[in-house]
Amino acid sequence: MRVELSSPKNYNNRELSWLAFNERVLEEALDERNPLLERLKFLSIFSSNLDEFFMVRVAGLKDQVKAGFNRPENKAGMTPKQQLQKIGAKAHRLVEMQNSLFQDAIIPELKEEKVELLNMEQLSSAQLLRLETYFEEEIFPVLTPMAVDAYRPFPMLLNKSLNLAVSLLDEHELDESAQQKTAIVQVPAVLDRFIQLEDTKEDELHFVLLEDIISHYSYKLFRGYQIKSVTVFRITRNADMTIHEEGARDLLKEIEKELKKRKWGAAIRLEIPKQEYDYKMVTFLTETLDIHRKDVYEIDGPIDMTRMMQFYKLVAAKREHLVYETLIPQPPAEIGTDENLFDATNDRDIFLHHPYESFEPIVDFVSKAADDPDVLAIKQTLYRVSGDSPIIDALKRAAEKGKQVTVLFELKARFDEENNVQWAKELEKSGCHVIYGMTHLKTHSKITLVVRKKHTRIERFVHLGTGNYNDQTAKLYTDMGLFTSKRKFGIDATNFFNYLSGYTEKPTFHHLSVAPFDIRSDIISMIDEEIRLHKRHGNGRIIMKMNSITDKPIIQKLYEASIAGIQIDLIIRGICCLRPGIKGVSENIRVRSIVGRYLEHTRIYYFHHNGEEKIQLSSADMMTRNMEKRVEILFPIFDGPIKRRIRGILDVMLRDNSKAREQDENGVYHYVTRGDQEELVDSQLILFNEAYQVMDDEE
User: Fold this and answer.
1) Which residues contact 203 (CB under 8 A, 6 or more apart)?
2) In angstroms, rounded to a whole number, what is the distance separating the alpha carbons of residues 518 and 635?
3) Radius of gyration for the alpha carbons in the chain, expressed in angstroms and rounded
4) Largest CB tally within 10 Å, which of 223, 426, 464, 591?
């Protein structure tokens, strides 16, 4: 009987799957095995994730509805309107869960640690007097009250800004039936959100919120008027950029123009306090901002939990036991303490696993290349870099020393566009040749090429990775990288950069597989080969680790492999449109998600191939956008010990019974069950301990 692999019942909706991932993030705030402040941080991460989701994905669906687009998406078969309805219900439930976590768990436990967020009614008269002085001297000069009337229209408020809506009554019109007036006060983002009270006991940490102070003393802003109500609110706007690349003579200028528009996109979400808000004012805000009541979210606690990261840092400085124990990335096991990186790479391929192993060798790779008089050229792709990037400094230094430096800086990296525009300008001023990517494609590849002339001989050193060249996120994201000087990798890297920078057809590569399209076809070919070998030998095995999987052709090919009897394990942190465990379709597929201390970011693709194991690392997830709309690289691992090490890492993750959740046939995730006698396996901690053990053994 023929199985209909395209049936919507075989797929999870992309957006709902993403919300399920963010729910797993929220569950980390519930997990009492995490230190208290780390749980608070997970609440902040959940909110930050949700902001981006609304600004891009929800905004896009709303645009489709407005445009009258009613066609179902091609996997789970839901129309934009149906998706918005399901998203709204799920998002409201998750926000309620966040509210409950904050009020019923985090706040009481902080109080036990003598850390409190107080409201103005809880303060003594002496404290109020000091705060009044603070308001008049530090806050009042920064505030700009904005009246709303026929001559002064509702102000255009910045995306994600915190504001106060003030309802006023003229003191000369004491009649309650008199028309109330409205004013908006923006809470200045330049001021500290959490104000610490100084007159407390030595072991106490008490704070008040900036918006509470402004609200309490707002009457000082409106002399001659009586304050009827003050409502804190925050709006989220459509932040998806529409870049018209075809007619753009200068992509950099086009992006700068679109960045200005992003701040003022259509409002798509309104956040208000769960208690003590003025219903009439909220009605006024929804009508003025053209927001439906179902897009109003009531927050029980400080609005904009993303700012809790500031609170985390303030408290962590005084309560170190409430945060994770510091784990220091170790020097890579495959590089000797006094070994020159270029000599080591000439001798053998070198594998790095971050954050368990340090990111420093990658910084050193570019930095030493910049200073090495024998180096002729450095070529690198950059997608997201840190705010004070040592790699950028090294590239600038190399150009100033006369080396040929070519940098592909992807200006369209979402929410890093502004940062990348500034870096691109700086690199150009230093003499680097900067290219901005390819028309209609994002360059998401992670590759660096160093060309050196040593004793009349040209050498090429290549670094390939799964993650960004960002020294800060490398401490928080799990990623892998490879240094190699193998000749064919060097040729491939040279051809890849020439393909990006010049007018040439896509080259034929020796080892690299390059999207758009080639990665998909090569992955499908490897799955087909696994099916062929399994039919002959009966030992088929596929393991894939990635951030997300949405690509229907690849999902269907995995379904075919499952039907053929191949055992498949997918380790997918985020979106998973594939649904495992469906009888006759995916019963041989298991899907797990690991959400823990570090953001799982590595992309690994393993095929057993009857014992001739194939392991590929990649910058690409198995998403349609990565397969068709991005320049990505998939690269093979040839070195036997490195292959065994990566396989061992996968095995540890597949044994995780601490932070792993498994998806059932209904698309719902559950924590992996652990037997009474079964040892606890936290894969991230095990991998860190292994890195420490290697260093101890060497010493």
Assistant:
1) 114
2) 12
3) 28
4) 464
Q: Tell me: the pLDDT tens digits for 453-487?
A: 988 899 999 999 999 999 999 999 999 999 999 99
Task: Find the angle CA(66)-CA(72)-CA(76) to the nearest 5 degrees.
Answer: 135
Count CB atoms within 10 A of the CB of residue 465. Answer: 28
By DSSP bridging, strand 513-515 and strand 350-354 are: unpaired
CB 384 within 8 A of CB 369: no
Instruction: Extract the tokens encoding 213.
Output: 């102070």
Where do runs of H (alpha helix) occur along 401-504?
A: 417-429, 487-501
Kindly state the percentage of the chain with pLDDT values over 90: 79
The position carrying tokens 């705060």 is: 131
Q: Pairing relation of β-strands 457-465 and 477-484?
A: antiparallel
* Residue pLDDT, tens place only, 629-646: 999 999 999 999 999 999
pLDDT tens, residue by residue, 248-302: 445 556 555 555 554 567 899 999 999 878 999 999 999 999 999 999 999 999 9
In order of 389, 483, 585, the CA distances from 365 in angstroms are 14, 9, 47
For residue 375, the cross-strand partners are 452
Before 355, cis peptide (omega within 30)?
A: yes
> Residues comprising the binding site for Mg(2+)?
384, 414
**What is the separation of C-alpha 305 from the centre of its chain, rounded to a whole number of angstroms?**
16
Task: Please state at what angle helix 390-400 crosses helix 360-371, rounded to 10 degrees.
Answer: 10
Contact 577, 14 (CB under 8 A): yes
User: What is the DSSP secondary structure assignment for residue 121, as one 8-state letter?
Assistant: G
- Determine phi and psi for 454, rounding to 5 degrees: -125, 115
Determine the Cα–Cα distance for residues 139 and 190; give it in Å rounded to an integer: 10
Place of tokens 């692999």: 5
Question: With 60 as the cut, is the pLDDT of residue 245 above it?
Answer: no
> 């930050």: which residue's tokens?
48
The catalytic site residues sit at 444
pLDDT, average across residues 79-95: 97
**By CB neighbour count within 10 A (0-12 exposed, 13-18 middle, 19+ buried), where does 249 fall?**
exposed
pLDDT of residue 179: 80
Q: Tell me which residue of 5, 52, 10, 49 sits closest to 26, measured CA to CA.
A: 49
One-letter amino acid for residue 105 of the chain: A
- What percent of the chain has a predicted confidence (pLDDT) above 70? 94
Give SS3 for 469. Answer: coil
Helix H, strand E, coil C: the string for 311-358 is HHHHHHCCCHHHCCCCCCCECCCCCCCCCCHHHHHHHCCEEEEECCEC
Q: Tell me the residue type at 631.
A: V
Strand duo 630-636 + 350-354: pairing: unpaired
Helix (H) / strand (E) element for 392: namely helix 390-400
User: What is the dihedral sign for C-alpha 649, 651, 656, 659?
Assistant: positive
The closest alpha carbon to 545, from 350, 353, 384, belongs to 353
Strands 205-209, 194-196: pairing is antiparallel
Q: Residue 362: name the closest of 494, 474, 520 by CA.
A: 474
The span from the CA of 129 to the CA of 563, in Å, is 73
Interval 411-438 mean pLDDT: 78
CA–CA separation, 640 and 628 (whole Å) = 32
- Amino acid identity, residue 67? A
| Separation of alpha carbons 7 and 272, rounded Å | 41
Average pLDDT, integer, range 126-151: 94
State the maximum Cα–Cα separation within the chain, in Å, rounded to a whole number.
93
**AA letter at 699:** E
Answer for the pair 599, 45: CB distance below 8 angstroms, yes or no: no
**Residue whose C-alpha is closest to residue 633's, from 556, 545, 529, 522:** 522
442-443 and 630-636 beta bridge pairing: parallel
| Residues placed in the known binding site for ATP | 49, 477, 573, 601
Cis check: omega of the bond before 302, within 30 degrees of 0: no
